Amino acid sequence: MPRLLRELSVRARALRRASTPAEEALWELLRGRALDGAKFRRQHPLGPYVLDFFCVEAGLVVEADGARHVTHPEADVVRDRWLRTWGCTVLRFPNREILEHPDRVLARIRAQLATLTLLLPAPPLPPGEGVGG
Fold first, then answer.
1. How far is the C-alpha of 41 from the C-alpha of 32, rounded, in Å?
2. CATH superfamily, domain at 3-115
3. What is the mean pLDDT of the chain?
């Protein structure tokens, strides 16, 4: 495993263990394909970054933004630009919004998912249909 990938994997594990209350709350709403069948990964390494939440099938990145994002917005601009060049869509939510208005956050994520092509597994065929049936 390349050194950068190994370092990012270690960092991602540490971030999962040290999740903020907003990240924990949002993860409870997204995990297990709970939102329209979309599979989200938590603290997912991608390129030089670790993404808070990532739906690979839709290329959707969801970021929970704490105080660091307010004091260093230029880093988010560079990161978002890099993610967009790789075909990702980025949604950012302040931690406070996630905690106080989770329904609004989910509605925005759901609306964004609806505009993207989800590469979800096909539903199973009824018995007797398909190959050899």
1. 10
2. VSR Endonuclease (3.40.960.10)
3. 83
